[in-house]
Amino acid sequence: MFDLDRWQEIYHVLSKNKLRTFLTAFGVFWGIFMLVIMMGSGDGLKNGISQNFGDMATNSVFIWAQQTSVPYKGFTRGRRFDYENSDVRALDEAIPEIKYLAPRTNVGGFNGASNVIRGLKSGSFQIFGDYPVFDSIDPVNLLQGRFINELDLKEKRKIVVIGLRVKELLFEKDENPVNQYIQINGVYFKVVGLFKSKRTGEAASFDNQRIHMPFTTCQKTYNMGDAIGFFNITSKDGIQVAIVEEKAIKVLKKRHAISPTDDAAIGHFNLEVEYKKMVGLFLGIRILVWIVGIGTLLAGVIGVSNIMLVVVKERTKEIGIQRALGATPRIVISQIITESVVLTTFSGYFGLTLGVGLLELINYLLDKSGANTEMFLHPGINFNVAITSLAILVVAGAFAGMVPARKAVSVKPIDALRYE
Amino acid sequence: MVDISNIHKTYITGNNKLHVLKGIDLKVDAGEMISVMGASGSGKSTLLNILGILDNHDHGEYILNGVRIENLNERKAAMLRNKFLGFVFQSFNLVSFKNAMENVALPLYYQNVKRKKRNAIAMEFLDRMGLKDWAHHLPNELSGGQKQRVAIARALIAKPKVILADEPTGALDSVTSQEVMDILTDINKNENITMLIVTHEHDIAKRTQKTIRITDGMITEIIKN
Ligand SMILES: Nc1ncnc2c1ncn2[C@@H]1O[C@H](COP(=O)(O)OP(=O)(O)OP(=O)(O)O)[C@@H](O)[C@H]1O
Ligand SMILES: [Mg+2]
Q1: pLDDT at A307 over 70
Q2: Which helix H or strand E contains A372, and what residues bound it?
Q3: Considering CB atoms only, which of A317, A329, A417 is closest to B75?
């Protein structure tokens, strides 16, 4: 129920010393404002970095061949070698922890001379030979057609799935690329699918310039024998990919006569480890933000409590009069707590609104300027966090008013009335 | 209406003990109007505050309108004050940010009477005090006599059994003092409200039915006027 007298009193109390009220409110305002800005920026940083991952399975490892660095079994150091098709089966059999195993080959050309031609148009793109399972490791948004399937692989079909950028450069704007042919390093392939990266920013434009063909087609067409460029392996859910990584390297060393002590022969990159480092970093940032933010907010709330103490002291006589006329402790206490909550919530609300507004503005400016948002994307705080912090404010305001309110009713009415 | 016997009160400040009331016995019947006189520091205000449940006594018995006043919690005390007692102070004690009408209506606010209704009642009481035109003025826009009349209206609005007035004319000139006393005696006669008035002035005391003299914490004389 709206109680005009109560609000009249709140207005009286808060407007009596406007500068003091403003400064107190500013403490809370600043606390929540900082919390919002810091949290938003933290999220922006996280979004920025995370966009490089897309939907890629983070529990994956890449393994490729380099040069041996240790003489072993009669071979000298500096030997080059290739993985072979038989390694796929060997790995699969030796390591039960593997979920997806995707051997891949690539036909260089990215940033090099034009390697893909269609009519008068041409471009240079990155070309991969892939297993269908690759789509489960690093998924893309299929816009048209289909991805590579088992039959393609078996029959070594001359088909390709192309990225959006490839289509843009080789086809007319409203042309459907599916069932059209493109020429890659002199060989014609039929386009069966068109995809778009799930990443954003620079990572996405990199993805969109890829062309995928069946792994077997790639080996055969470009005379690679049964050489494999690299493996992309993921571990089963709940199993660290590092275990798979270690076992796979062991198996591969044995199969290719590489010394167990040779750390340079096999190149490998564990995405999970990198990802965890990053997640840890963001967790750290988040904890720091909360500590600093809550600290600042707490300082503001303590300021409110302090001012309420002063207000209660100033109003001792007034409160004494009210009590003489029949105001119960409950009425007095709830009045003071309401004042405190109103002060805290209003200033906090402004801080929240302004903070969110500023984040939105940054967002807008970033979008509009088209700046390279490699590291920073969509700063913002989620709705729940905003609501939670408002709830925290109300509770904090109530706590801030508690001590002063208790103090107001702890004196005898006569002592309050006599107070000068 | 008011029945106290052997009331003692000692103030303790630091190491000093000040025995202010040393066994007060007093019976006030319903509808009586009594004045309390005595030298400064004799304990008049102390007695009135105890009667007003604004302060507590150390020893003795206090029965107000049949209710024994002892070890009350603040909530109960506040409700008893609201229901049974009206206060008139020397320094008026109006709430500065509320206008005359809102000040008068305050006791009804604590009874949860709706704002519209309590303001209407307050207007009636202000009208009786001849202050209808001043209803929307803040206390600092009123003269001393006007303020005290607002305070009296406020003391009356909840229809109390007893009005306790501690030097109600202490801050007023003699003409205004007599006007205030006119109002108080009127109320006493017409509404049959019991009244205790502390005063230093014989003119004022004479207008009550009985005068009680307190000397050094004890009742030493009761004069019928
Ligand atoms: N809260 C208190 N703490 C300590 N001493 C007090 C307190 N209130 C009153 N006294 C002392 O008790 C004595 C009686 O005070 P009281 O106010 O009852 O006197 P009074 O008769 O009303 O005097 P006056 O005519 O000046 O108003 C005084 O000596 C006063 O100093
Ligand atoms: Mg006195």
Answers
A1: yes
A2: none
A3: A329
Q: Tally Cβ neighbours within 10 Å of residue A77.
A: 14
The distance of A381 to chain B (nearest Cα, Å) reads 42
Task: Name the nearest CA neighbour of A32 among A398, A412, A393, A420.
Answer: A393
Q: How high is the pLDDT of residue A372? A: 57
The residues spanned by each domain of chain A are 4-53+276-418, 103-226
Asked whether residue B62 carries a pLDDT value surpassing 80, the answer given is yes
Is 90 exceeded by the pLDDT of residue A106? no
Q: Which of A137-146, A159-168, A275-284 has the lowest mean pLDDT?
A: A275-284
* Three-class SS of chain B: CEEEEEEEEEEEECCEEEEEEEEEEEEECCCCEEEEEECCCCCHHHHHHHHCCCCCCCEEEEEECCEECCCCCHHHHHHHHHHHEEEEECCCCCCCCCCHHHHHHHHHHCCCCCHHHHHHHHHHHHHHCCCHHHCCCCHHHCCHHHHHHHHHHHHHCCCCCEEEEECCCCCCCHHHHHHHHHHHHHHHHHHCCEEEEECCCHHHHHCCCEEEEEECCEEEEEEEC
C-alpha B10/C-alpha B20 separation (Å) is 6
**Annotation: CATH topology of B32-39+73-224:** Rossmann fold (3.40.50)
Q: CA A82, CA A228: separation in Å to the nearest integer?
A: 7
Instruction: Name chain B contacts of A417, Cβ cutoff 8 Å.
Output: 54, 89, 93
SS3 A116: strand
Instruction: Assess contact for B140 and B64: CB atoms under 8 A.
Output: no
> At residue A70, what are phi and psi to the nearest 5 degrees?
-130, 130
> Does pLDDT of B132 surpass 50?
yes
Asked if the Cβ–Cβ distance from B154 to A8 is below 8 Å, we say: no
